[in-house]
Amino acid sequence: MNIYKLLKMAAGEKTPGFVKLLGLWTMHSCRRRYIGVFLDPVLACNLRCRMCFFSDDTMRAGMTGTISEERLALIEHAFFHRALKLQIGCGAEPTLYPRLAEIIARGKNAGVPYISLITNGQLIASGKVSLPDLVKAGLNEITLSMHGTRQETYEHLMTGAKFSNLLTLLNIIQGIKKEHPKFRVRVNFTVNSLNVHDLEGSGFWDIWPEGLQPDIVQLRPVQKLGESAWTDFDPRPLKEHYDASISSVAAECRHKGITCIAPSKHQIDEVATPQDGVSAMIEDITYCYVSPRECYKPDFNPATDTFEIYHRRHRTAHRLFRAAFSRKLRDRGRHISKKLNYTVK
């Protein structure tokens, strides 16, 4: 069986747990790519979005640091050769990092198949960061944090952003797509009681230039992930307006051939994803978060460890193989994942 088909099968929700673990064990033992590297090169943001912890003075004061050239080289050596995906930007704004194109080029030179950037896009729109240069370096996808499609909503929720910059950014992306048709555009829209109305009617679609549409739309119900200026986490307005907003956008996405990742109405109340022991073990091994402060696991030392050295020390291949045949692990009580509960529509 093709090794990537095996990985895809191992990730399937309906795949038996022992098959998932054997698939991961095979990928691990054959030294194949199977991890996702999620990199925050700088712990800072140019905005103070109301739903984000950067809007809280105390939280923001604790988010500092820029990844050094030496640390970046160590991270590249430790992880990039095992990465299926490199995502730049997780909990901060990566376009503040001055050598962003270098990170992308390092990932591409290491053979990472897919490189994504999550950004509010304001510095790209203002010309301080060149999106064409990032695409030339090897960027495959841009994910836009876009929490409103009307000026008053967008600028209120994304404090410090200019709606005119969003429109400029979409025009820049339109030009990129003409030259690089396979370049993908993803939208991350966190839905709350205020901006849910921006999704009604044609509101979500009116801002897109003619000939440009997103490839993937993610509609995330707002949830409390820390202290922030936003305090309304009541799901009832989202459920009340669900058919006219989230469901309407999802239906239009289906019509346009766009992938839409959104909660069903009953999932609004339970945005976190339950996991069994198998899924938790897989996520624990494959999810690799790196920042100026953190690196994969608390006991991972990037100065001395590589992915292989670390997992030999922890006997991961042995643990995966044993776990594949462990009914105890497969039947372990469910817990909550950091990932949100979605339906692909």
Determine the mean pLDDT: 90
Number of strands: 11
Shape: globular
Overall radius of gyration: 20 Å
**Could you tell me the strand content as a percent range?**
15-25%
Number of helices: 15
Please trace the helix and strand order, writing H or E for each element: HHEHHEHEHHEHHEEHHEEHEHHHEE
Strand order, largest beta sheet:
9-1-2-3-4-5-6-7-11
Major sheet attributes: 9 strands, mixed
Distance between the termini: 29 Å
What would you call the structural class?
alpha/beta
- The low-confidence runs, each spanning 5 or more residues with pLDDT under 50, are none
How much helicity do the residues have? 25-40%
What does this 3D model show about the protein?
38% of the residues lie in helices and 16% in strands. It has 345 residues and is an alpha/beta fold. It has a nine-stranded mixed β-sheet. Strands 8-10 form a two-stranded antiparallel sheet. β2, α5 and β3 form a beta-alpha-beta unit. The radius of gyration is 20 Å and the shape is globular.
How is this structure best summarized?
This protein is of the alpha/beta class and 345 residues long. The chain has 15 helices and 11 strands.
Q: What is the fold's blueprint, element by element?
A:
Blueprint: H1 3-11, H2 17-29, E1 35-39, H3 57-62, H4 69-79, E2 83-88, H5 100-109, E3 114-119, H6 122-125, H7 131-137, E4 141-145, H8 151-157, H9 163-179, E5 184-191, E6 216-221, H10 236-240, H11 246-256, E7 259-262, E8 272-275, H12 277-286, E9 287-290, H13 307-313, H14 316-324, H15 327-330, E10 335-340, E11 343-344
Helix pairs in contact: 1-2, 2-14
